[in-house]
Amino acid sequence: TTGASSNTDSSTTVESMEDNPDGGCHIYRNGYYRTGISVVEGILEVNIIQMTSIQMTESQAENSLVDFVVTCQGSLPTDVCTVVSDPTCQVSKSVVCDPIVVTDECLLTIRRAFEEPGTYCINITLGDETSQALASALISVNGGEST
């Protein structure tokens, strides 16, 4: 763009110049454009408010199940991703993403399986078309029990 100016109706005049490599000519275009900006609230905050181990029978004990109760502020999410990492939150062990439907209040329960006992870093991300928010926690899974 070689020059731009504004007039009183908030439109912007744009003068542009393009090189034509074949003939060495210049093409000038003059005109107006308008744009609108929509400000969306987005998902502002995510909190893990409870972690509960699911008691299973001995025949089901190959995986420990944990329910995470999650709340959020702002717009309602449309998907949730859970990243399970080592205790330092550096090495990812698994990533699970699911679409969700939240209709009224942002309060949901996410169930995840852990293959073996240990301490894990959990990152839960709630997202929609325009935003994402993250909550993290350390969890210790002890063969069907979590703390």
From TrEMBL:
Q: Which Pfam families match?
A: PKAT_KLD
Q: Compositionally biased, Polar residues: which spans? A: 1-15
* Alphabetical GO biological process terms: cell adhesion
Stretches for region Disordered: 1-22
Domain PKAT KLD positions: 71-121
Offer an example of a GO molecular function term for this protein.
integrin binding
Identify the GO cellular component terms for this protein. Answer: plasma membrane
Q: Which domain of life is it from?
A: Eukaryota
Q: What is this protein called?
A: QNR71 protein
